[in-house]
UniProtKB/TrEMBL annotation:
It catalyses: a 2-demethylmenaquinol + S-adenosyl-L-methionine = a menaquinol + S-adenosyl-L-homocysteine + H(+). GO terms for biological process: menaquinone biosynthetic process; methylation. Methyltransferase required for the conversion of demethylmenaquinol (DMKH2) to menaquinol (MKH2). CDD domains: AdoMet_MTases (cd02440). One of its GO terms (molecular function) is demethylmenaquinone methyltransferase activity. Keywords: Menaquinone biosynthesis, Methyltransferase, S-adenosyl-L-methionine, Transferase. This is Demethylmenaquinone methyltransferase. S-adenosyl-L-methionine binds at residues 68, 86, 111-112, 128. InterPro entries: SAM-dependent_MTases_sf (IPR029063), UbiE/COQ5_MeTrFase (IPR004033). It comes from Microbacterium keratanolyticum. It holds the Pfam family Ubie_methyltran.
Length: 245
């Protein structure tokens, strides 16, 4: 690992500037590395997220922690107006390079805990593998609630805890021993993927995250496991008669 890579490696303190710089550094190879380390499952998880969001023409959708905007582009294919928001300018620049030609997709640099949007602005909001990187995830869930219209939808796709002890053991071994090596072979900062393993290991399980979502005010909270629980897809709605914040 180079001194620059080490300096830009985030830790579980999740300092926003440091996390942002780390993602800036890996932006160019991010999608390639994700595909390699998930053995192509990232495309299946993205498709599941798009089905859960169920974007429709005429809707306004926020994809927070959008990264290189792969999910945003998938949402935009429906004809919905999609905002790809991320705190990493490097990731947003890569997203614009790849998907900036889409007329119904816009890009905004944003802090998940202090979103630059009005109350009740979006029909649906989504985060994929990004809530885990926020220093105060509970505050981010409240911000997502604030900017969602009454009756609107929340979809969170995040790495999680496999219920099976056997799968959990394999998952931990893969994340700690294999994943950083795959990242380095793919030409990406392996230190960033050391952080990924640490952040996954430290992240709450499905039930606890569901509890956080309820605490933020969301209703109809549910989740389903993908890939034996290595990833979990959480869904919720904002109560239709909510006053907003």
């Amino acid at each position: 690992m180079t001194p620059e890579s080490e300096a830009n490696r985030a830790d579980l303190g999740k300092d926003p500037d440091r996390v942002s710089r780390m993602f800036d550094q890996v932006a160019a190879g991010y999608d390639r590395t994700n595909s390699a380390m998930t053995v192509g499952n990232d495309a299946l998880w993205r498709a599941a997220t798009t089905r859960a969001v169920a974007p429709k023409r005429g809707e306004r959708i926020l994809d927070l922690g959008a990264g290189t905007a792969s999910s945003s582009a998938s949402f935009a294919a429906s004809g919905a107006e999609v905002v790809a928001a991320d705190f990493s300018p490097g990731m947003l620049a890569e997203g614009k390079r790849r998907h900036g030609h889409l007329p119904n997709l816009s890009f905004v640099q944003a802090d998940a805990t202090n979103l630059p949007f009005e109350d009740n602005e979006f029909d649906a909001v989504s985060m994929s593998y990004a809530l885990r990187n926020v220093q105060d995830p509970k505050k981010a869930l409240r911000e997502l609630y604030r900017v969602t219209k009454p009756g609107g939808r929340l979809v969170i796709n995040e790495f999680s805890t496999p219920p099976s002890a056997l799968v959990r053991g394999f998952y931990r071994f893969y994340n700690s021993q294999v994943l950083p090596r795959v990242a380095r072979v793919a030409g990406t900062n392996g230190g960033a993927y050391d952080y990924l393993n640490e952040s996954i290991r430290d992240w709450p399980d499905q039930r606890r995250l569901a509890a956080w979502i309820r605490e933020a005010g969301w209703s109809n909270v549910a989740y389903r496991n993908l890939s034996f629980g290595m990833v979990a897809l959480h869904r919720a709605t904002k109560p239709a008669k909510s006053s907003g914040s």
